[in-house]
Amino acid sequence: MKKIEILYTEEQIRQRVKELGAQITKDYAGKDLVVVGVLKGSFVFMADLVRHIDVPLRCDFLRVSSYEKNKRTNSIRMDFDMTQPVNGQDVLLVEDIVDSGNTLRHLLKHMQAKQPKSIKVASLLYKELGLGNKEFVNYIGFETPNKFVLGYGLDDEGLYRSLPYVGFAKE
Ligand code: IMP
Ligand code: MG
């Protein structure tokens, strides 16, 4: 295992996720919500986030892969899709990180074809200097430096997802 320099501690993440949950609760007051996690990276963030959202909600998941051995590739593969229809419903897509924005653009197109009533995006991390379109990300946990980060769901070749904090590998 590599030595990790911590960027966001467990406590900082806990606090920020709580704030995001409160904001989402306010924004969706009186509505039902479908929260859709993008696997695998979002599973930790989503598990914590939904427990801070106080409106009736359902959870679903889909899985896409956009990285081959950590190298950015333009092709995005849908490994599996959600199991419930979302037409006419308010949908919140949950991502671990938006970097180039490629995956998100692809996912938004995919979701819009399902004709939800509304679609918003929550991402734990947003990479500064990535090329992601920030206007498409409604709830951002932290704007991270342009480094390869891991922990709290994010991986490096499958490892480190279980770390309770977010950091990057020391040289
Ligand atoms: P994008 O398509 O370039 O926005 O990248 C989106 C996906 O790439 C994310 O959902 C992550 O799974 C992965 N990714 C991007 N940057 C990082 C990183 O710094 N660490 C780990 N995974 C990353
Ligand atoms: Mg991902």
Explain this structure to me?
The relative contact order is 0.22. The chain contains 3 helices and 9 strands. The chain is an alpha/beta fold and 171 residues long. The model has no long low-confidence stretch (mean pLDDT 93). The radius of gyration is 15 Å and the shape is globular. Strands 4-3-2-5-6-7 form a 6-stranded mixed β-sheet, with helices on both faces. It has a 3-stranded antiparallel β-sheet with strand order 1-9-8. Residues 41, 66-67, 72, 95-104, 132, 148-150, 154 line the site of inosinic acid.
Strand order of the largest sheet: 4-3-2-5-6-7
Proportion in helices: 10-25%
What's the mean pLDDT score? 93
CATH topology: Rossmann fold
Q: Which structural class should the secondary elements be placed in?
A: alpha/beta
Please report the total strand number as a whole number.
9
The low-pLDDT segments are none
The gyration radius over C-alpha positions equals: 15 Å
| Tally of helical runs | 3
Beginning-to-end CA distance, first to last residue: 13 Å
The CATH level-2 architecture is identified as 3-Layer(aba) Sandwich
Strand fraction? 35-45%
The biggest sheet amounts to:
6 strands, mixed
